Amino acid sequence: MKIIALSSVLAAVLCANAAALAAQAPPPGDVERGKGAFLKYGCYTCHGYDAQGVPGKKLAPNPLPYAAFSNFVRTSPGEMPTFTQKVLPDQDLADIHAYLRSKPASPNPSTIQLLQETGR
Amino acid sequence: MKKNASNKVDRRKFITGAAVVGAAALTSEAGKAAILPGGQEAPPRAPATVRPSTVLAQAEISTPSVPSPADGNPNLTKGRPGSDFMLDVIKSLNIDYVFTNPASSCRGLHDSIITYGDNKKPELMTCMHEESATAMAHGYFKVAGKPAIALCHGTVGLQHATMGIYNAWCDRAAVILMTGNSRDSVTRRPGVPTTHSVQDPAVMVRDILKFDDQPASLQHFGESLVRAYRVAMTPPHEPVLIVLDTDLQEQGYEPGGSLRIPKYAIPSPPAGEVNAVREVARLLVNAERPVIVVDRCARTQAGVKSLVQLAELVNATVIDQGGRMNFPNMHPLYARGAGGVAQADVILGLELTDFFGTVNEYIDNTVAEQSSRLKQGAKLISIGSGDVFIHSNYQDFQRYQPVDVAIAADAEATLPALVEACKSQLTAANRGAIEKRGQAAQTAYAQSKERMRVDAAAAAWDASPISSARLVAELWPLIRNEDWALVGRALGGWPQRMWNFDKYYQHIGGSGGAGVGYNLPAATGAALAHKEHGRLAVNIQPDGDCMYAPGAIWTSAHHQIPMLTIMNNNRAYHQEVMHLQRMAAWRQRRMDRWHIATTIRDPYISFAKLADAMGVAGIGPIEHPADLTPALKKGIDIVKRGEPVIIDVAMQPR
């Protein structure tokens, strides 16, 4: 029971933080430079050239708000290495985020005939 | 054109002459007369052996003169060659193929196979690397269900084969290795053949063999080969090695003596003890959330069927780790990944080599994090032949995982008894709970299919380079009505998410030891085994793996092994990149140099041209998704003509 209560509190705090972070506007970034930085830092090797994920997390379309995105990149607790400001400058990170925001929405799977044939 | 008889080189005399020249050339310290006590001068000594030299190497590769068959000629084999008897023993075991790179230390057997045996059952398959020969036999075994021979040159050939043997060892594959050796220092040829001779050839690979022997007589050979075959074919299936003494191969014997080919009896695999099996059944039928985790269990369709029966009896989720095609992936109880482990109260591991890794999580960070996935009080059961036979040196057995019930037995052989034991213990009470689990599994299954389609569409569906999901999806409608088999890597798990695997031979798992260079030759060996059944072999081939030993492409052309190879050309060793990023991040160093020594670019490799150069049809590079289906159709047409083809596809990193 204690664990459930603690989890609920934690979830509420995280939601509040996420909402606060989402409210911040992203810093200006350049899409083309961001694409170059995405390649240069090797982000694509785990997240794909189009930031689609596999085997890493899917980053685009609709990336995390900049503050949450930056927070994750700077303090990644999991398998992904931590990219500090020293090794990945703020402007490069802002450009990468601009590149991620520029990615178009994925197609609707129900409109792809080929996918209807798979899994059966 | 008639050759001038005076130009013929007698090989034996040539070698002798070369040895004399070599000895005479030692005019410095080694050749000088020694001064004995008392001032007496000893005669100059010639070295006992001659070190390798260009002259001797040339003698090795020069065309020998063939003496005319005449009675009493000392250069002719007296009686029947020993290697003919060796071939008789091999034939008695119904071995179809000998994968080899030609080797003088095996010349006796080589000759027997192609002349006395007419190169049929077994047939020699020309390989361009012993590692490839071993991997071909490895892939062949997993489809054919019986071993082939990988015939390797003494010392250097076996050294080449070593990584392939390790993969076969880790992957529980029966491969019969043979290597030539000249034990007798008096009769063996000097120079290179002596350099390639060794007291104990197997010592370098003994840790990854189940059995080896260096027979000293033909009868000894017969008994050891039949023993080796039986040992290899008793679970856990593992590689074995028989050393072929060159004198034994080449010297004649008089037929009609006491020489006999030992009888081979198919071994019955070790099955679980009945009381232990009953206890496992008791745990399974009374479990709230039973999970079966399976790796290298099913080697026949009967094995797949038994596992389906067991899973359906108790409606247990089956997590297939994919070491073999164990369980139909379109079955509602099928699952991938370790997610289901966390909710399970009973976990049955079948032929797992890494039970610890299955129930524990590891995060590679500066402070390595390891945590249990297990629910409090979960019961763990292991059934596997890995406990029957183990070596200590190589750590492929992974970290020790305590379990509640351990059955040291072959899982496939134990499953029928476990199914019956479960049936006998089912009650009306637990039948109700089991039925509810089945309904939940149906719902989860339907959701997983929809999630697969959403994931595939979102994974760069229209992008160039082409996504793994797109390639796999494009392939499916073209092969689904064929008798197909995936002989190579399961690209990112997408085939298991999109295709319908329901036959044991449709997937053979991976390398076992993660030794790169396995996939292309193993797929070739597997495709050879499929050939006689007329199956469409599909190989999704990593580019880096191909470049370890691309000579396997030529083997597929030379021996007309039909196989659709799609080169997953992602132009890098991507798995290694994050290791470098991790190092740079931990050390706060620049993170833009990871590409050094991890990428395959500047220039890109043209695999279509590489294929063409080796006599295999090459298509591509295919850069855009819209071009995929026409290329794949063209490739499949070529394969249906009985030929191999390589389609070079520029792919996303993973």
Measured distance between first and last alpha carbons of chain A: 42 Å
Shape of chain A: globular
Total number of β-strand segments of chain B?
A: 21
How many domains of chain B? The number is: 3
Q: In what range is the share of β-strand residues of chain A?
A: under 5%
Secondary-structure topology with pairs:
The complex is a heterodimer of chains A (120) and B (654).
Chain A: H1 2-23, H2 31-40, H3 44-47, H4 66-75, H5 90-102, H6 113-117
Helix pairs in contact in A: 2-5
Chain B: H1 11-24, H2 54-61, E1 80-81, H3 82-92, E2 97-100, H4 107-116, E3 123-126, H5 130-144, E4 149-152, H6 156-170, E5 176-181, H7 192-195, E6 211-213, H8 218-232, E7 240-245, H9 246-250, E8 252-253, H10 274-285, E9 290-294, H11 301-314, E10 317-320, E11 334-335, E12 346-350, H12 355-359, E13 360-363, E14 369-372, E15 379-384, E16 405-408, H13 411-425, H14 428-458, H15 468-479, E17 484-486, H16 494-498, H17 519-531, E18 536-542, H18 543-546, H19 551-558, E19 563-569, H20 574-587, H21 607-613, E20 617-622, H22 628-640, E21 644-650
Parallel strand pairs in B: 2-3, 2-4, 4-5, 5-7, 6-7, 9-10, 9-12, 10-11, 12-15, 15-16, 17-18, 18-19, 19-21, 20-21
Antiparallel strand pairs in B: 1-8, 13-14
Helix pairs in contact in B: 1-2, 3-4, 3-8, 5-6, 5-17, 10-13, 11-13, 15-22
